[in-house]
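Re: that backbone. Tokens:
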């Protein structure tokens, strides 16, 4: 019997360890092999102080994910000191997470969806969570970052972490520079070796 094909390439590590930087370097190397679609999360700083996070598409479009002190009086869910802009997140990310049906054209190159990250802020959106589950149900290859640990387990994060079609790469200060080629090599070998 054939072993389970890996379709979820997962990066985890401590906050601030460089997961997003790693994802961006991986994307620049993978772009010659496949179509990339998705987003990464970027810190927003003013005078060196972090005031929040944005979601940024691979093409450079930007939306607000969270802010420490939003200037308006709209009530938003909070994670720690940050107010989360759920509708901005959805408007930005949901179109990027739509699955392109492979039956549209058999000549279409493989598509890899980039999701940085699947965490507490993003999962305040049930629509975001549903989109992730749909990608997983359709065996759409993804490269995603997840938290190393959370106070309470997040079911979808734990499901992805433990799934038989997932491989998890644990990033540390010591290995983050060598991880780029390791992960790119693994993805190319797994998804594109027959190309």
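Recovered sequence:
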């Amino acid at each position: 019997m054939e072993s389970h094909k890996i379709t979820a390439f997962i990066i985890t590590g401590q906050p601030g360890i460089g997961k997003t930087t790693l994802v961006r370097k991986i994307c620049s190397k993978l772009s010659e092999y496949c179509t990339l679609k998705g987003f990464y999360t970027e810190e927003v700083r003013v005078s060196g102080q972090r005031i929040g996070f944005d979601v940024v598409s691979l093409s450079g479009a930007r939306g607000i994910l969270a802010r420490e002190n939003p200037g308006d009086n709209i009530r938003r869910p909070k994670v720690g000191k940050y107010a989360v802009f759920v509708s901005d997140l959805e408007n930005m990310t949901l179109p990027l997470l739509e699955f392109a049906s492979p039956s549209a054209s058999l000549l279409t190159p493989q598509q890899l969806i980039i999701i940085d990250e699947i965490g507490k802020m993003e999962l305040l959106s049930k629509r975001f969570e549903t989109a992730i589950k749909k990608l997983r149900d359709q065996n759409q290859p993804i490269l995603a970052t997840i938290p190393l640990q959370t106070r309470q387990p997040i079911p979808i994060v734990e499901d992805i972490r433990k799934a038989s079609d997932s491989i998890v790469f644990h990033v540390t200060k010591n290995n983050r520079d060598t991880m780029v080629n390791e992960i790119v090599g693994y993805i190319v070998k797994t998804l594109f070796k027959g190309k």
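The chain has one domain: 8-42+87-192. The chain has five helices and nine strands.
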